[in-house]
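JOB MANIFEST
job_type = single_chain_structure
chain_count = 1
residues = 208
[input]
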Amino acid sequence: CIIKNQMKSLLLVLGVFVILSIINKDASFILFLVPFYMVMILITTFSYDEFNNWERYCNSLPLSRNQIVKAKYLLFNACTIILLFIGFIASIFIPIFIDNISFESLISTLLGVAFGVTFVISLLIPFYYRFGSQKGRIMVFISIAVLALLIALISKANIFNNASFLTFINNLNNLSLGVMAIILLLLMFILIFISYQISLRIYNKKEF
């Protein structure tokens, strides 16, 4: 119901981003901002659950805890599929209005953004189940900051300039778009599966 109420504003935001993309000849407005806007809507579902004591009420219904957790992940997966579809349609029409952008580059960017959103959600849901909406949001930011710090430290150690690593990157660049899409989608599935298993363990131990 929350997402349904937000659909009008989401479509309005999408329309504004389409216009900005055409005016600025930059597709990032659609491919980056819209998915993360959708993530924010999904985050609000946890806040509403907590505010309205939904978990206590939901656990009084004839539903297993596995079903309750699975519902959140099904919601995210459904939204991800919709966003990928919207991004795919946008990738077909954007090159008509913006000359210096190709369909292949847009699809590559779209897959990268989808992977980034999946990574954030995979962290976010277990943290929300463990710490609640407020502390969970803080823990996600801390985790991402620590990850960014580790990447920065590894970069300073010149590991990214290692010959074997550069060879690996070159091999990735030589992969076809279809193969890269399969790899990223597989990694997304693995992330969600691991996150789901962790959330199940956390939720099954909670008391309401």
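[summary]
The mean pLDDT is 76.
The chain is about 85% helix and 0% strand.
exit_status = 0
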